[in-house]
Request: fold
Amino acid sequence: MASKNINLKLKVWRQENAKSKGQFENYDLKNISTDSSFLEMIDVLNEQLVGENKEPVAFDHDCREGICGMCSLFINGQAHGPDSLITTCQLHMRKFKDGETITIEPWRVGSFPVIKDLMVDRTAYEKIMQAGGFVSVNTGGIPDANAIPIPKPNADEAMDAAACIGCGACVATCKNSSAMLFVSAKVSQLALLPQGRVEASIRAKNMVAKMDELGFGNCSNTGACEMECPKGITLAHIARLNREFLCANVKD
Amino acid sequence: MNVFLKSSIGKKLLMSLSGLFLITFLLVHLVANLFLLGGDDAYNVATHFMDTNPVIQIMQPILAVGFLVHIIYGIIIELQNRKATPVKYKLVNQKESSKWVSRNMIWLGLFVFAFLVLHIANFFVKMKFGEMAEVNVDGVTMHDSYALVAELFECKIFSIVYIIGFIALGLHLHHAFWSAFQTIGLSNDVWRVRLSVLGDIFAVVITAGFTIIPLKIMFFG
Reply:
């Protein structure tokens, strides 16, 4: 596709800090290449703002290749914008029309407070991970390869779950702000493998308890999370988390 | 146990199990109702059987508890979910990622509940505590339940209200059926499709089955 330049109207959420009220600001951007990524477009906006002696827009980003989970943004009413299986950094301006108004908001989740402008504090995810998203192993010599046989389908499914980058799009898009897709991916990736199986019950219990404590909502199976997930994590993982959690409680 | 029932998944398990119980009740209710298509005697005998069957009588208070658990926990979960999202998006495009029904289960549920209150006032209260005309079928004296049903549905407004209630119930079931199994953990990428199809068939059977009755009385007496 031939690249061209487009003009855009941006409606960007500006908020000084977690306490302040915040409001939308309108910006006009000219000559944005359709080959540029969404974040590059915001870079151009910030260059423009700095040139005008204004405060640039604060937004999260790091690797810009869709694997770090740092970028966020609710673009035109959708987490990571209007494309599937990508993060915001992988969204390109060719998805937008010349003259289009683009509304950009931060994740709106009670447990992810806004730090500034479009940046939110996703420490709640770290706290859930600290509650059980790990395998307790004693360090020592490297075990022999293939000493623990793992069926290929299990390895594949664990790998699918492990693709979760913890960006928070699932919570951001969920009308209930439920973190179930994230927690289920983290529980699945370990529960499917023999090394993680040992602590599967306690892990499910601790991570769910932490998730509830941090004020995430209750999943109502709308399925919006899997549609917006940049890594294609499916609801089947949530069913597995439910199984793990219920079995763990039955055992008590 | 207490900690478990306070957890998000524990509360949802109660929603799921009470929901599946209510789904079973709907099926029994529908089977009893369809005797109406066999005429007044068939319906009166079926109703008399339900009235006098000890199992049905024991199940009645349990059913009431099932409704209460489902409604109360549904409201608790909804309120918590609202609290979890204190600031709403100014622009949100949810129809790309989820179905309207799945996002509005609380409203469909409350609508069905309002319909249930009307329904109990129309039939259950009258059958249980009111003065009913009596008929004699094969030497057994019983309530003329058929007359009660026929009288109500001859009024077109009631028939239409009931049919709208059945459609809301069907929409609720469209999301509820698979969702109940998902919450228990009895789903994966394969079974999700199967259960969704089964749920849709069930929803259509329930809605169509109940709707036949006011339609029959309206058009064929």
In short: The mean pLDDT of chain B is 95.
